Amino acid sequence: MTPALEASFDQEGCISPPEDKHTSDLYIRTTWVDAALAYSLLKKGKVAGQRASLFMLRLVQQEISHLGCFIQRHATIILILSTIFLLANCIGLKSVVYETRIDRLWFEDSENLNNERSYTKKWQGEDETVLNNQMFVQRPAFPNTSVLTPEALIAHSDVLKRASSVSVDMYDKHWELQHLCAALSFPSFEDGMVDRILEDTMPCFIMTPLYCFWEGSRLIPQRFPIIPNITGDWTNVNPKELISEHRKAIEKYGGKFFYEKLENTIEQAGLNLGFSQKACLNPENPECPKTAENKKTMAPPNVGSKLSFGCDGMASRYMHSPVEAIVGGVKESKTNGEIMEAAALQTIIYLMSPTNLYTYWKNDEVHHSDWSPANAALVLKAWQLKFENEVARLTKGLRSPVNEEDDMFEAEITIPNLNQFSFVTFTSANLEKIIADNTSFDLCQIIVGYIIVALYVVLAMFRVDSAVKSKCSVAMIAVVFILLNTAAGLGMCAMLGLIFNMATSNILPFLSLAIGISDVFVFTKAYAEQPSWQSRPEEQVGCILRKAGINVMLTSMCKIAAFIAAGWVPIPAMRAISMQGGVLMLFHMAFMLLVMPAVISIDIKRRQAGRYDLLWPVRVKPSVGAIRKLDIFKPMRQAVAVTMPPNSHIVTTVLAPEDTEMPCSEIDANKDSLHRTLEDGWPVPQCVNKCSSLKRLAVVKYSMLFTYSGVKVFLFVWMIGWLIFSGINITNLKNGLELKDLVPASTSVHEYFHLHTSYFNFYNMHITTKGAFNYNTKQALLHDFHSKFIGVNNIIREQDGGLPRFWLATFKEWLIDIQLAFDEDWRNGHITMEGWNKSAASERGILGYKLLVQTGRPDHPVDKSQLTKIKLVDSNGNIYSRGFYNYLTAWASHDAVGYSASKANMRPEPKPWYHDPNDFALAIPKAKSIMYAEMPFNLRDLNDTNSIVQFIAEVRDICNSYSKSYNIPCYPSGIPFMFWEQYFMLRRFLLFGVATLLASIILILMLMTVNIFLTTLITAYLVICCVQIISLYSIFGISLSAISGLVALYGLAFCVQPALNISLSFINAIGNRNRRVRLALEHMMMPTLHSTVAAVLSIVVLAFSNLGFIVNHFFFALLIVLIVSCVNSLTFFPLMLSIFGPPGMIEPHEYEDRIATPTPSPPRKRRKAPRRPRRPIVLNHQQQRCAFHCREPSLTTISEESNSWQPSTPEIVVQPKVVLETTTHHYHHNHPPPTAGTSGCPANCPAAQQQCSSPPAPDGSATAAGNSVPPLTSYPHTIAMATTKVKAKTQLEVEVHTPVMMSAGPFWPSASTSSSTSSTFSSSDQSGDSGAKQS
């Protein structure tokens, strides 16, 4: 027989030409439509295939089909409950906690570093910070302006002096710079007043170019007189002369004071002259001392020459500012090394850590009940922010209030030459404030991004030819639910206690949209290819979910695996994205499998009601004129009724209409009616073929390219060459994420990071040695360990070319000085075995006596016999080991300046011990064993990430070598190790992440598809994509960082989605590889393109972000990923399938490109309800339960085909050979009723007589093979309307197509009636699906 013609509609809304049933999805994509049918064919031996894969696919399809049917029955309830659940989770957004500290966001979170940080926090405090210094940078405002002039340094001094004089009042104390800065310590004199005076007069640790000149003294705060009864400050005081004059005055009146101890301390620290003899920047200044270097000549100093070798502070021995730290962008003279040009000047003010500040003031002036390390940090932040605000005010020339509580303002600030320079500050408090300001969600940006995507999907789903068939509302509701789903997922993360940061709030909403929108197109594709006649109305969502659900489940699980694998990246900000992204993907998968089918269910009802898309209240109302025009197109189907003996039953044969076309001129004006006509099974005009869209034509033409050998060879050569180039180019990939990219470009912090990277490249670091090491007995090993760092070129050397002294060297030098003083007093007889002469012995000699007698034994602490037997430091340079910790106590207390300048930060700190020459007590308390000590270094020339990583590797190698070989437990610390050490292991972590993701994808595919060939091919494809993505990073200058590496991992999830869609369509198709590749591309090309465009639009808003790391390391990286995914999935991956593709799920034996028409399965046994008399069974009733399988109409009416059944005229015969017994009640008929003699044939009906004259088939069918019944077009009006009752006896499903000829009316009745029952049924004269009118 001639199969029924069926028109279809593609995803773009264009009418496709009618196709033979054998080209429908059921025949060429059997496993995609109905895996159960394919599995039954496999068991019957009619096809070959993969039994395990089919069994798993059948099982999954069965479950999700039941789920779809359930959702369709309860769509409204599911939508309401889902919305309530999502809104309830959105409430969790109120409890969002943001992390704003940069060290807790971007520093590596690895086991080794965590152990090191934990050890540091254990001994230094919980709130230790690595960015606690106050930075101040000056650079020219104009190109021709130089900073190496006295005017530039005077402006530097004026701004810095005023900014550093700010103060804050908190916790019942007035806080100024001298209360907060790290400073040298004077030894204690057991006089609280003297100790306080000396502490307040000691300068802060400051590195500044001003220390090369007299103006540097203006930075030293001064609140108290330096010496009682003598006022002054460091601008006009010579410390050595001052103490000498004060000593004479006190001794004149018989007073006593430890002047010798004070003089020794000043001399040892290099405080002899102060600033009194340094050159003045402006020698004409009246405050410039007469002793200044250039006071007599009144000549301005050569600034470049003075700064060439760094600057010494007030304590010249311990306060040296290296030129690398204070002058940037230097160009030196080749002859004498003097600085000729410079781009910027920098001052660094060292502040105490919150823990040290709390400890220093907790027992002194601060008695507030809330005083704690956390509140100490608040004091530091408040002062830093006020410092930065003051600099901004000064540079803008604004006025500041004299008192913040009133409206009185100071006069406008006027600083000479201020407009020629720009000043940039950096504080950790301002950095944290900027991060906090950019951490919260930008609702406006999010809404704009989602609106852009919503507009695109509406345009993609819009159908110009039919407003009813359009799917815009489905797509728009899907975007809205993705937004709601994202908000709910983030709310759930907040309730789970996950910490949010600037990366999660700025990236995740758009990343979730980009990943989620792709599944929407997969669903709408299946929805578009599910016509109303393919399944019962209540089964449509089950069929859609059965087709699209497998793809969505597989891709969603792969996306979740990608977020889990990204947890290998050891950066807290990125791990937060991974965890929260994984939660969002769980919400997204639940949405796609539960809510999206419910949305489609509602839309199906809208389409059945004939309502416009997006305008649901508007119903389609075609005009009568248009309908009447279409009447000439609507053909007439005919039925031939023949009476069969012996019971005079009438046998009905339903004939197909002649091919009558609608005039092409009427198509455009009546598209909605045309769509309904085509779906009702009427013939399609030839001109409908011209309606095929250019998109569909392009898809077909493009997919045919992969069937040509020349194209395959070209693409294969191109793929191999590109892969080889990418593999080689990976080696050129650079590491790096600049600090300036972490803050907005318009901030002072961003500008400072830029200047620091461009000009200074100066950092501090220290080597921490831990406990479990014998410091007293392994001093030589410790010295050798320290000397090894001389081979690290990035460490700044002393002027003599050696390394900076560390605490043990300073400690040893102090003991040598004490030994020399003791030896001199011993030679002069001022000290003997029994004691010392109070008036003659020196203070240091007496201290030496006390040190030499220490034994280090608790039971016998003093032994005078050691005076002549031992030395404090032996000839090998080792401190006497038994008295080591006793000496350490004396050094920390007596030489407090040297101890604090060594920056040892020793823990536990030695207890205070006061040395009094008049005290004959010899025992010195023993310090506790050292558990924590630091060796400080200053670094230079760390220009980029690669140089920093190389430096880290050198330092780590030294530490690891001595730790393993010599048991020196140590580790390095500092900003380079905190921020850049991630790159030392980043590539390895990313490799672990890729391996984890690939292993997860392999496991998922093997469990869900049980297809090792498909799994291997997709894995190889993902590896190729990964190589290409990393190579393109290198080509476009995107450096490898934690963010771009994470995007590469997420990129594999983007790449696997179109590959899975195409590959699943490939293995579900029937035919050879070329045919299956063509079918796969025709099936999934448009969803892939739509998904890529929508994903790009999802993240396009991020291109305008003010955060550099989002633009450079996320947006551009993800854009590369999306392009690679789209291009590869539509070129290289189809090529791989056409060459190495796995076999199809089934391979039919009878045909190469389709399955044979299968035999319908027997109906399920159901409990028969008692039949009520005289109550007809309604055909196609809408209350049936969801069928186990959705079959096309051809399979419900046709059994195995027979080659002998070849009618010469088109007709539709009920098969399998079912006898239809009809009884017709005539009301007004021109022919007499049938009689037994005529067998029911009207005498004047030639066609009927011809039908009656044909002998009945052996099996009792109405016609025999080869009979041809012409249509009864010559008697259109001789047969009046009659009511016919039809009774069928069969065990199979039967469908009889009996359209009714009508001349007018707004709508046509359905063209088919069907039944799936073995009992007798009758049809009355009713319109719709419940009955049929016959002519």
Which helices and strands occur, and which strands form pairs?
Layout: E1 6-9, E2 15-19, H1 25-28, H2 30-33, H3 35-44, E3 47-49, H4 51-73, H5 75-90, H6 111-124, E4 134-140, H7 150-164, E5 168-170, E6 173-175, H8 177-180, H9 192-201, E7 206-207, H10 239-252, H11 259-269, H12 303-307, E8 311-312, E9 320-321, H13 323-326, E10 327-328, E11 331-332, E12 339-341, E13 344-349, H14 354-361, H15 373-396, E14 421-426, H16 428-437, H17 443-461, H18 472-495, H19 502-528, H20 540-565, H21 572-608, H22 624-631, E15 638-644, E16 649-655, H23 671-679, H24 694-704, H25 709-729, H26 748-760, E17 763-770, H27 779-787, H28 807-827, H29 843-852, H30 884-894, H31 896-901, E18 932-939, H32 945-965, E19 970-974, H33 975-979, H34 982-1009, H35 1012-1035, H36 1042-1068, H37 1073-1099, H38 1108-1130, H39 1132-1140, E20 1146-1148, H40 1193-1197, E21 1220-1225, H41 1246-1253, E22 1283-1288, E23 1294-1296, E24 1313-1315
Antiparallel strand pairs: 1-2, 3-20, 4-13, 4-14, 5-6, 7-13, 8-9, 10-13, 11-12, 15-16, 17-18, 17-19, 21-22, 23-24
Helix pairs in contact: 3-4, 4-20, 4-21, 5-18, 5-21, 7-15, 10-11, 14-15, 17-18, 17-19, 17-37, 18-19, 18-21, 19-20, 19-21, 19-37, 20-21, 20-34, 20-36, 24-37, 25-35, 28-29, 34-35, 34-36, 35-36, 35-38, 36-37, 36-38, 37-38, 37-39
Main sheet makeup: 5 strands, antiparallel
The count of helical stretches stands at 41
User: Which shape, going by the Cα principal axes?
Assistant: elongated
How much helicity do the residues have?
40-55%
What is the CA-CA span between the terminal residues? 23 Å
**Relative strand content:** 5-15%
Please tally the β strands and state the result: 24
Kindly report the average pLDDT value.
77
Low-confidence stretches: 1-19, 402-409, 623-644, 647-692, 1174-1220, 1222-1284, 1290-1335
> Could you tell me the radius of gyration in angstroms?
46 Å
**Oligomer description:** single chain
